[in-house]
Amino acid sequence: MTQTATLGAVLRADAMLVPGEDGSPFRVIAPAECVIDDEGRIAYAGPPRDTSRPTHELTGQVLMPGLVNGHTHSAMTLMRGVSDDEGFMPWLAAVQGVEQGMTRDDVVAGVELAMLEMIATGTTAFADMYHWDAGLLRLVSDAGMRVFAAPACLGAEVVGFPGVSFSTGTEVLDETEALAEQFAGDPRIRLGYGPHAPYTCAPELLRDIRDRALRTGIPVQIHVSESAAEVADITDRYGATPGRHLAALGLFDAEVLAAHCVHLTAGEITTFADHGAAISHNPVSNLKLGCGIAPLPAFLDAGVRLALGTDSVASNNSLDLFEEIKTATILHRGVHQDAAIVRGSDVLDIATRRGAAAIGFPDAGAVEVGRFADVITLDISGAAQAPFTAERLVSHLAFAASGRDVRHVFIGGRHVYADGDYLTLDAAGILARARASAARLRATA
Ligand SMILES: [Zn+2]
Description:
Elements: E1 10-19, E2 26-29, E3 32-36, E4 42-46, E5 56-65, E6 67-72, H1 88-99, H2 104-120, E7 123-130, H3 134-143, E8 146-153, H4 170-182, E9 189-191, E10 194-195, H5 203-216, E11 220-224, H6 228-238, H7 242-248, E12 256-260, H8 266-275, E13 278-281, H9 283-288, H10 296-302, E14 305-308, H11 321-336, H12 344-350, H13 353-358, E15 375-379, H14 393-400, E16 406-411, E17 414-418, E18 421-422, H15 427-444
Parallel strand pairs: 1-5, 6-7, 7-8, 8-9, 8-10, 11-12, 12-13, 13-14
Antiparallel strand pairs: 1-2, 1-3, 3-4, 5-15, 15-16, 16-17, 17-18
Helix pairs in contact: 2-3, 2-15, 11-12, 11-14, 12-14
Residues 71, 73, 223, 259, 311 line the site of zinc ion.
């Protein structure tokens, strides 16, 4: 690990993805220059200028906004490959079996491992629901990443994180508010209430969260309508589908980021759009667990605020958002037998600018003057990228690129990843700790 500060850099690349004009999400500048000011924001994004001297000459690379993961549980990276083929309920039981033995050190190891993978594959910001405390949030901030973190809140009758924290229900909400106050001045850290799901949180708890959110302004993360079994269970218990149930409790009066929404009805989608509630679309996890396919085209038509997420590695098994971008683009084409129904440029937009806004970092997500310099570069010099032409940059990023192509990552102007080297994380130490934690958890599960 080498510490190199890099605010105030001039980056030159073969091509660059910037916000488009006339309703198109993107346009391409080639060749291109991106200047980062001393505050870590973008001071210039355009063609190379004679007057500036590049600090990074990124030949054979393209520059784009950092990717935004709209839904994950980073500590669960330790559970890569747990219950791959059994489906949602057995998978959940297997995961909870591992969580019984988890200590706080394991959570640290999982979060650090996730950051290694996210940074190396071009993710600069993420929304995460798990056990979060001040020390874990400082780890993310010190690594330079942005996180919208929601300490998971489950009803007292539901198993939580016994090895990590005995807090349930309102205790977690009090802790969330204290953390929000503590990190209020950190532009990388944003707190949310994290009611796990309507099937693990009683109506009284959800109503309490809604009242607190209106009072404090703290947003909410929650899983909604992930499986048909959940919809049947909630309808059975409360006489309403999950979206209707949450709407009746007034939850959408707060700022909400809902994960999955695989089985929303048309009326529920309208409710989300009307209230400005955001959805994280996580197609790979939904496919892998056999939960179904969320109606992304209907979300787009209704104007729902959207992010793209991997969900945890336990159900993906990768944090590479490029894989998610391609899947989200082509999946719905197959379902609807219509190749025009979802455009790659729209999904790229959801994975960057729209996703950043949806998880509460509206100053990130695009290569544009004044925004945070959360930018990544990808190699375009190899066989998998040839023949590369700048006018096909969006096509390349949506359909051909991989997280393995990522060469450099800057977050808030800070250089955190350079040609395979982590500049803010001790990769060897993290890998050793993560392997040790995973081995111990396997032995005790
Ligand atoms: Zn989840």
